[in-house]
Amino acid sequence: MDSFKIRKVKTADLESIYEIHKGKFPKPASPRYYETLKSIKSSPFYVAIDQDSEDEQVIGFIAIRVKRDLIDGVWDSYMSVASIATSVDKEAPFTNEEVEKRLIQRVVDDFDNGGFYGIYAELRESSKTSLKCFEELGFSLKAKGKYKDGEKKIVRYYLEDLSEVSGDVEIKRMNYKNLNRVLQLHNTYLKSSKQIGYYHNLMRNQGAVNLVAVDSKGRVFGYLCARRQLNDSEDANSRRDTLNFTTMVVDDRARGKGIGTALVETMIEQAKEGGIEIIRGDVRETNTGARKLYQKMGFKEKAIGEYKDTGELKYRITKRLRLPPLSSKTKRNLERAIILLFGYVIGRRFD
Predict the structure, then answer these.
(1) pLDDT, tens digit, for every residue of 67-116?
(2) What span, in angstroms and rounded, lies between the C-alpha atoms of 106 and 91?
(3) Angle at the Cα of 82 (from 115 to 84), degrees rounded to 5?
(4) Bridge partner residues of 316 (DSSP)
(5) Alpha helices, DSSP H only, in 44-120?
């Protein structure tokens, strides 16, 4: 059984990380280098911990930067290995190679959630262990160059393969690990481009319904987002029982499998459980496939104007799940009417 574990980096680990860096690399890390990497939530940063040590001794780490670049004409995100290093005692029951391979595998697991074009790692020719680990985990040779000190640079890469859906598709609640893939789907298939912060805000919305469709490998092939909001956006005192259906995308490679229907059905179920009165959203006139789906699911549509970016017709879709609660005045009037009706019925019986 392994006597080390991989977990997310903590602030308390940083001192040990700097020490390992100093012993492994010719150039010292700049001040706050690893603090900065740790602060970026979308960038994976893991440490290997000796489980037999009393103080959770750090014996290795891997830090990733998430970058964006124009790839094949599309802005795509990719993982870049900022730093990887291990420091294992000779007496330990595991080796530097075992630790390093587990660290890389953890990043590959994150990558398999989708949303990244590839993983890139620039390695020194002298880093024999690292080169071996990357190669055994399926990384290919991309290019060669040199570092400023003259040592050969070996570039390894690992590309995303989403050629087909694996197994059955399951609808799950969206989590933060899914967001890079969700953003990729949005900017690939929708006309309005978004930044990652848009989806972070949706995740923080209390009462929101955020869903992903994942295959048996955990890869995201579709998603749906709907935020809970005020019934009347101009009245801060109005009830917060409206669900604003903002976006839904299904990857072309997963069309025809009922994923869109399953996402909308799950949204409706969760909206009912959350006490939502009405689901509301907008759809473009040209999105005929989505419009047919919404009509099939009981949504009514009404033209409300045009989209500013293309000028095409905008349809408002709505689906009422329950009637709004009665006002105090209406309740009083109903009570009076019931009393009067009851009195009338009793009076007729004794006539």
Answers:
(1) 887 665 556 778 999 999 999 998 899 999 999 999 999 999 888 766 67
(2) 25
(3) 110
(4) 282, 302
(5) 96-111
CA distances from residue 77 to 63, 83, 330 in whole angstroms, order as listed: 16, 18, 55
The pTM assigned to this predicted structure is 0.59
* Nearest CA-CA partner of 157 in 136, 177, 134: 134
**Hey, where are the domains in the chain?**
4-159, 170-320
Three-point CA angle 98, 100, 101, nearest 5°:
65
Q: Is 49 helix (H, G, I), strand (E, B) or coil?
A: strand
CA distances to 96, 234, 254 from 133, in Å: 10, 58, 33
Tokens linked to 142: 């991309």
β-bridge partners, 122 = 155
Mean pLDDT for 318-338 is 70
The superfamily CATH assigns to domain 170-320 is: Gcn5-related N-acetyltransferase (GNAT) (3.40.630.30)
Cα separation, 259 vs 248, whole angstroms: 10
Give the CATH number of domain 4-159; options: 3.40.630.30, 3.40.50.300, 3.30.460.80, 1.10.533.10: 3.40.630.30
User: DSSP state, 40?
Assistant: -
Contact 123/154 with Cβ under 8 angstroms?
Answer: yes
pLDDT for the residue numbered 350: 59
